[in-house]
Write a structure and sequence with these properties.
Number of helices: 12
Shape: globular
CATH topology: Rossmann fold
Number of strands: 10
Strand content: 25-35%
Helix content: 25-40%
Order of helices and strands: EEEHEEHEHHHHHEHHEHEEHH
Radius of gyration: 18 Å
Bound molecules: adenosine-5'-triphosphate, magnesium ion
CATH superfamily: P-loop containing nucleotide triphosphate hydrolases
Structural class: alpha/beta
C-alpha cells in the first residue's frame, strides 16, 4: 500500500535521510525505531508530502504520491504529530473537527463523531470538548491528537512518537488502550518511536534507523534473533532495562 524507495533528503547540504526504502502492505504496522536525530520524523513527513524528498519516491496504492494533491493524500493518511501538535487556540472539539470540516461534514455528523471518539479514548464531550489543549494533561492531549487523526476514518495512520513525553506507566497503559481500539486495528500504520517496547508491542515489522539510514528491517523476532550489528543489538537490549 505504501512503498518508499531510496528516499533522500538533505537540509542545508547535510543529509538527514538517505537510501531509505521500505514497503508497508495494507493493514501492516511498520515501526520506525531509532535514536534522536536519526531521520525518523523526516522519513514520516515524506510519506504524506508534508515534505518532498530530494530523491527517491513514495508510492501509495502503486501511484507516485507526487501525482496526488497534498490535501487528498493527507485526508487518507491521518497524522499524529510529535509533541501532540494540537492548535492551542482551538478547543478539543475544534481540533478534532479539522479534517471533517475540510470535508464539509455537517455539524451534527461532526458532533456525533467527535463525541464517539472522545468516549472511545476515555474522554468525554461534557468534560473535555470545550477545553483548550493547555488545560489537559499530556496523556489527554495525546488522546486528542489521536482522535484528530482518526476523525475522518482515514485508511492510513502516520504517528510520530504518539506516546512521547509520557511517564512509563501512563505510556504502557495508553499504548495498550490504543492497541485494543477497533479504530486502530483496521488501519495501515507507520509509527515513529525511540521506545523498543512500543515497537515490539504494536509493530508487525520494525525498521531501525541510525544516522539517516535504515539499517535493518524485519519482524520483531527476526531482529531479536539476528540483529545486523551491535547498534541494533544494543537498541533491542534496551528492552531489558524497561521498568
Ligand atoms: N526543517 C529542518 N531544517 C533543518 N534541519 C532539519 C529539519 N528537520 C530535520 N532536520 C535535521 O535532520 C536530522 C533528522 O531530523 P529528524 O527530525 O528526522 O530526526 P528524528 O529521528 O525524528 O529525531 P527525534 O527522535 O529527536 O524526533 C536532524 O539532524 C535534524 O536536525
Ligand atoms: Mg522526530
Amino acid at each position: 500500500m505504501i512503498e518508499a524507495s531510496q528516499l533522500y533528503k538533505a537540509f542545508d547540504g547535510r543529509p538527514a535521510v538517505q537510501g531509505v526504502s521500505f514497503t508497508v502492505p495494507e493493514g501492516g504496522r511498520f515501526m520506525l525505531l531509532g535514536t534522536s536525530g536519526s531521520g525518523k520524523t523526516t522519513t514520516l513527513r515524506m510519506l504524506n508530502r508534508l515534505l518532498d524528498p530530494d530523491n527517491g519516491q513514495v508510492l501509495f496504492h502503486g501511484k507516485d504520491t507526487r501525482s496526488f494533491r497534498p490535501e487528498d493524500l493527507r485526508r487518507q493518511m491521518g497524522y499524529v504529530m510529535q509533541q501532540y501538535g494540537l492548535f492551542p487556540h482551538y478547543t478539543v472539539a475544534e481540533n478534532i473537527a479539522i479534517v471533517p470540516k475540510l470535508l464539509r461534514w455537517d455539524t451534527s455528523r461532526i458532533r456525533q463523531r467527535t463525541e464517539a471518539l472522545l468516549q472511545k479514548l476515555g474522554l468525554s464531550w461534557e468534560a473535555h470538548a470545550h477545553q483548550y489543549p493547555a488545560q489537559l494533561s499530556g496523556g489527554q492531549q495525546q488522546r486528542v491528537g489521536l482522535a484528530r487523526a482518526l476523525a475522518a476514518d482515514p485508511p492510513v495512520l502516520l504517528m510520530d512518537e504518539p506516546f512521547g513525553a509520557l511517564d512509563p506507566v501512563t505510556r504502557a497503559r495508553i499504548r495498550q488502550e490504543f492497541n485494543e481500539l477497533d479504530e486502530f486495528k483496521s488501519k495501515t500504520v507507520v509509527m515513529v518511536t525511540h521506545d523498543i517496547r512500543d515497537a515490539l508491542e504494536l509493530g508487525d515489522r520494525i525498521g531501525i534507523m541510525d544516522k539517516g539510514r535504515l539499517i535493518q528491517t524485519g519482524t520483531p523476532e527476526e531482529l531479536q534473533q539476528h540483529p545486523a550489528n551491535d547498534f541494533v543489538a544494543a537498541f533491542l537490549h534496551g528492552k531489558t532495562d524497561a521498568p
